[in-house]
Design a protein that fits this description.
The protein contains 12 helices and 8 strands. It is of the alpha/beta class. The chain has a single domain, classed as Aldolase class I (TIM Barrel, Alpha-Beta Barrel). It has an 8-stranded parallel beta barrel with strand order 1-2-3-4-5-6-7-8, surrounded by 7 helices. Helix 5 packs across helix 7. The longest helix has 18 residues. The structure holds 2-phosphoglycolic acid (PGA).
Length: 249
């Protein structure tokens, strides 16, 4: 059976002390069984938060990482560095990385391979923008993001991934994809994965929905057959809301 996952992407929010308090509050409030709860704070917070999460059910993710190992890459953070702080997951290809930092599918593929090589689990994000949604071209966009971003992986490596479908027009806008819209794309992703690899690979893949997901809409979204949880932005900065979302299965 595939895992139910709720991951919180804090983006560039909170100062380190605030982040450590938020993580502590989440640890204290979270008691939902059968759900993996993950938080992805900024890099500067990871050392302190890693200590807060010791012996807790809450797991740690980074929001990005370098595609290189070590060396002259000013400003970058390597997968090994993250691993050494007990980070388990890394978000790769968030739409903000794709659009503001021009990360292409081929760069993202290199990052994913590097993450897997050091034992991090990539949460690979895909999703169309508003124009692509309105023109009806969204299936093609997602197909390319899968083909160029992850389908070069072996079946064994691919089976370690988590995928997040995040329509760009729903991120931080308050405009959530309807459960029917989200389910349509999740089913499409699962079918593509089944065709590329094996049926069992697709059945075991957790596909998260992201984009203005909050306690008031999580239940309906998570009730859909192919939606296995959420990647949460804004609502992940409030411990009550975040933990409430994890109860929405
Ligand atoms: P949002 O962000 O929940 O604030 O829309 C989601 C995301 O960007 O992962």
């Amino acid at each position: 059976m595939r895992k139910k996952i709720v991951a919180g992407n804090w983006k560039m929010n909170t100062l380190p002390t605030e982040g450590a308090s938020l993580a502590k509050e989440i640890v204290e409030k979270f008691d939902t069984k059968d759900v993996d709860l993950i938080i992805a704070p900024p890099f500067t917070h990871i050392g302190a938060i890693s200590k807060v999460l010791i012996n807790s059910q809450v797991k740690l993710s980074a929001q990005n990482m370098a595609k290189e190992d070590f060396g002259a890459f000013t400003g970058e953070i390597s997968g090994e560095m993250l691993k050494s702080l007990d980070v388990e997951y890394v978000i790769i290809g968030h739409s903000e990385r794709r659009s503001y930092y021009e990360e292409t599918n081929s760069i993202l593929f290199a990052k994913i391979r590097k993450a897997l090589s050091v034992g991090l689990i990539p949460i690979y994000c895909v999703g169309e923008n508003l124009e692509e949604r309105e023109s009806g071209n969204y299936f093609n966009v997602i197909k390319n993001q899968l083909e160029d971003g992850v389908f070069g992986l072996s079946k064994e490596d691919f089976s370690k991934l988590v995928i997040a479908y995040e329509p760009v027009w729903a991120i931080g806008t308050g405009r959530t994809a309807s459960p029917v819209q989200a389910q349509e794309v999740h089913a499409f992703i699962r079918k593509m994965v089944g065709d590329k690899y094996e049926l069992s690979t697709s059945e075991n893949l957790s596909i998260l929905y992201g984009g203005s997901c909050k306690p008031s809409n999580a239940k309906e979204l998570f009730s859909k057959e192919d939606i296995d949880g959420g990647l949460i932005g804004g609502a992940a900065l409030n411990a009550n809301d975040f933990v409430e979302i994890a109860k929405s299965f």
